[in-house]
């Protein structure tokens, strides 16, 4: 394989990017990628190059790696940025370090920028085996994608079709120098065990095992894309009844018309940008939520939030929506200006309202005067308006003295604007 030609062909679709950034660990793979791109940049019109080294300091040897990376980048005329990250305590230090590294890199990308990672075909084969042994489904067995969104830019792996032996031969031929992570030589970690014990044994019997495993990952990625298309079709729904409520939600009835397998596929597609997905054992939570009686407020708790069932819909709640907020009355001394509500966004008036105003929350027993209909019990009125149960206690209420005048976001009569407007708290999401 001609590595420079392969790299140019693989990255041809990214030539219009504003910049290419190489994730440089200082090891063999990323050193080869940096050398290739630095050489190609002298002969071809590539985007500007830079490198980023993430220093997580998990072992003493790592303290010398930023200096090594700096010397290599200086020799090639490529600017280097060193990022120091804290790796939180985790059951798997390798997984925690990988997440911290990817998060730090993604945060440094500008719009449209391409982050280049040097994962190769043997890495892909190792990932397939690792996930297969963990009982992964089609999505997991698709292993590492060749490209995906990352922060404001893109993450691209241009060497996934290249074997480690090819990279090793190139590095030896070019007399490159790289660092060796001493932890990679130990087989205690699962991935290292696969790399040093399992994959060599497989190759001794089936020499093309890494290529076959990587090819299987490609088949799974294609199958996952088809499942994504099916999920998108199954999730095509009319807009929610409360368009001002910026929470991800789904109508329940269309899901109930699908087979259980298609329900789970659609929900995976819906939940993937919102939370870490549950493993097989925890999917019974969906069955419980789907089949629950509506006397209470059915809920399925997931890693990064909750899926609630209310008003014939499934609602995703996270961040501020799962936190308690002060519910005592908030005086409004200057109704002509917006009023900040502790832990609950802010409100403003569409038109002047006389009297000493304050914002309160539902306590029970409130009555609302509706023009032409007299007074209505607030609880029943909210049920008629289709207000989800989880929202009823959070809706700001406008009072003058002891009289309830308005409910945030709802007009008192058809064709009118709501007297009280509410900037709803954000449903905090993390990048996935």
From TrEMBL:
<keyword id="KW-0067">ATP-binding</keyword>
<dbReference type="Pfam" id="PF11734">
    <property type="entry name" value="TilS_C"/>
</dbReference>
<dbReference type="InterPro" id="IPR011063">
    <property type="entry name" value="TilS/TtcA_N"/>
</dbReference>
<dbReference type="InterPro" id="IPR014729">
    <property type="entry name" value="Rossmann-like_a/b/a_fold"/>
</dbReference>
<dbReference type="InterPro" id="IPR012796">
    <property type="entry name" value="Lysidine-tRNA-synth_C"/>
</dbReference>
<keyword id="KW-0963">Cytoplasm</keyword>
<keyword id="KW-0436">Ligase</keyword>
<comment type="function">
    <text>Ligates lysine onto the cytidine present at position 34 of the AUA codon-specific tRNA(Ile) that contains the anticodon CAU, in an ATP-dependent manner. Cytidine is converted to lysidine, thus changing the amino acid specificity of the tRNA from methionine to isoleucine.</text>
</comment>
<comment type="similarity">
    <text>Belongs to the tRNA(Ile)-lysidine synthase family.</text>
</comment>
<dbReference type="InterPro" id="IPR012094">
    <property type="entry name" value="tRNA_Ile_lys_synt"/>
</dbReference>
<feature type="domain" description="Lysidine-tRNA(Ile) synthetase C-terminal">
    <location>
        <begin position="357"/>
        <end position="422"/>
    </location>
</feature>
<keyword id="KW-0547">Nucleotide-binding</keyword>
<dbReference type="InterPro" id="IPR015262">
    <property type="entry name" value="tRNA_Ile_lys_synt_subst-bd"/>
</dbReference>
<dbReference type="InterPro" id="IPR012795">
    <property type="entry name" value="tRNA_Ile_lys_synt_N"/>
</dbReference>
<feature type="binding site">
    <location>
        <begin position="25"/>
        <end position="30"/>
    </location>
    <ligand>
        <name>ATP</name>
    </ligand>
</feature>
<keyword id="KW-0819">tRNA processing</keyword>
<dbReference type="Pfam" id="PF09179">
    <property type="entry name" value="TilS"/>
</dbReference>
<dbReference type="Pfam" id="PF01171">
    <property type="entry name" value="ATP_bind_3"/>
</dbReference>
<dbReference type="GO" id="GO:0032267">
    <property type="term" value="F:tRNA(Ile)-lysidine synthase activity"/>
</dbReference>
<protein>
    <recommendedName>
        <fullName>tRNA(Ile)-lysidine synthase</fullName>
        <ecNumber>6.3.4.19</ecNumber>
    </recommendedName>
</protein>
